[in-house]
User: What shape does this take?
Amino acid sequence: MMKNNMNNTHPTVKRIHWYILILVLAFLGLALFVFTALNGNLTKMQNFETIKESIFKTKKEVLTLKAKENARSYSVGQPIDISVIADSQDQDIVAFDMLMTYDKESFDEPIVKTPLSGFSAFPFNKDTHLSVTAVQAPGFKERSIFKNTEILTLTFTPKKIGKYEVTIIPKTLDETTKLVTIENKVIFPKTSVITLEVY
Amino acid sequence: MKINFRKNKNFFTIIFVIVAIILILVTYYAVKQQQIIKSRAAIDVNNGTCNTTGACLPEKALCDPNGGQTNCCSGLICILNEEIPTTLSLRGICSPEPTNTPVIESPTPQTPTNTPVPTLTPTRTPTPIGPTYTPTPTSQTPTLTPTRTPTPTTAVNTPTPIPGTTNIDLELKLSFQGITADSPPEALTTDVQYVKVSIVDDKGSYIPINNQSIPVYVDENRLWIGQITINNIPLTELNQEKFYILIKGPRHIQKKICDAQPTEGESGYYSCQFGNIAFTQGLNTFDFSGIRLLAGDLPIEEGASQDGNINSKDLAMLKNLIDKDDSLITSDDLINADLDLNGKIEAHDWSLMIESLEVKYDEK
Assistant: This one.
């Protein structure tokens, strides 16, 4: 009875059935292909991102400035402690140079100290900028990997009212801000700026 | 269900067409995907990343000049760019291939006729010598080899001066920080060092010198003596102008000297502004041993020039060498960082460098 029904189905209906079947199979095939292709491309893109990241890894080392008091404004004559915070991306740093500009007419020459154990900081105030060189003493074997580590403290004393920027600059004509690893590898970190308001 | 192929001829034609269309679409999609990936890679190449998909690197893209990912596009080659930090692995830039090589004429070599040039061998072995060595700078052939053979420019002198000009000879006596008659107590590892000399007139113009890098030889008092010849100084300038001299030692910061016989209160702190040195025709002898050339600006790598100041690179290098096992110290390490020339890199060298940080920069 059933067979008869099937055989008696109108040829147009039969044809539609076939079309539907083929379209479903084609869709499945296409879906499978797209999935495979996308998967492969995703892997490629992931590799690409990894390589990109490794190339630009050096750019992740940073020196940032942070005011210790976390206040927004300061009064004239009030010492302002600014911390230089470093991230060395797991690299063991034995020395670094930091170049900084600030308004020399509005601030006294800053007092520079390093809280890093075994390190000494040597500031040099040039006409155009402040250059600080810090180094770990010979014989000091403790590793110094910076992870949001305070590496310098600079105490500025404002002389004038105003809004001022204190900036770590990447380079001057003959100097650069840099970190030097225990393997004598030189790293150029990202630098930053802080704005101070003196009233 | 039995299919009659003859009866369903149209049906199969339609199926064939559909399958063909699907295949065309799928192929088109796949090709499109590949193009998207390649173009994204090419875009990122311009942003400073590398090629990962086999697409060639366009002009100005970063590449590795030492091999590896150097697949710059046709007509481009990977050229090392010194401005790219050494911390990056890709330090080259895809640049157009030079179409023609410029012809550089090599200068006609001049044969020196009067001042013998000492023959120096470039490899120094730090064999200690006795402190009583007495040099004869102008005629000797030193047995000990210098720190590093400087790149000579041309021959030292020109026999006959141009009319209206004259040649002058300068004999300089120098003193280096950390190397004095009694310090270090050990014998020195070399009896010759190379210093760079520049001469500047009142107007701030540099007097051209054929070979700025001259050897200076140690005497029994551990003072260092060397000669330099300056050719074709205009006689008018010689009679009217006053000069200052800039001297930079091989591991030292540059010192500006304005006086013929300068002295200083605290070691290394001599400082001056205007030149007060007069030259005469023939030999001019200047005793600069009253001031010290401060050590600390190290030649960091083989053949590399000093960078004009004492910075974290110099300090890190010295610290790392002091911390290094003595048996691992090489002759190159000594050439670069043995500031007192005693054959060891140690605390004394460190203290000299820290002392020099007070001055820090080349004087100009």
